[in-house]
Design brief:
This protein has 283 residues and is α+β, with helices and mostly antiparallel strands. The protein is built from 7 helices and 14 strands.
Length: 283
Amino acid sequence: MVAISLQVRPAVFADQQQIASLMYFESRVHRHLDWRAPLDWLGSPHYWVLESQGRIQAALACPQDPPGIAWVRLFACTASLSGLDAWSPLWEAARAEIDSVGGAQVAVIALQHWFQEILVAAHFDLYQHIVLLEWNHPPFTPREAPRGVSIRPMSRNDLSSVTEVDNAAFAPLWCNSLDSLDRAYLQAIHSTVAETDEGVIGYQISTGNPIGAHLARLAVRPDAQKKGVGAALVSELIAQMQLRRKPHLTVNTQGDNSSSLALYKSLGFALTGEKYPVFVYQV
């Protein structure tokens, strides 16, 4: 048997078609679910391909956004390679490059068991789980915004303030950049901010689907939390979806975030039983 000669190199824009073929026609594909498709990251650092005789056999993308946080946006490989044989050289190249620019926390929401096994073998640590909740038209009593707080539609001019709220509300691993929130806003079916005379103190961004919406992001400034702001934002979203006759809502949160879980459960959301592990590796 002739050994396959494999070469690791940075991905370039000319690789778009071959990477797309990997993503859409191979069975072992991990895609990070957010507002930017894996191909959109071409040209960014930490994007590598594994090729043999000009044919791409695997691809790995883990660009930093925001700086210091590198989510694995794509890992895909052909059936001709084992997952670990494809992952190892790509990960070594990406890890070395990340280290050379000062390091980062690399993170993965691993939806598939085959990828979880690779991450464990690569010495990624299990960080926490993401859980899914749904709201499917239970009895509902709307929550009013606290005194002095108003809720209104988000505008693009709000995004700088929204980013400040987001980055104050979440641990660094879960913070969004201004660019990510801009993309989220442009793809939203419904987005609102909560504000006082001092400015924006909270927001929500939700994406649509055929039967309802997914609450993709909810954040309240730390000094305004546990005062009913988050409940009012979600309540207004529920009311809007009822008006549109799309009352089915879903939301993800960290399985160990007791405050978030308590908020959603108080509004009638219920755990579905689905959960997904988050793995991290500090470079």
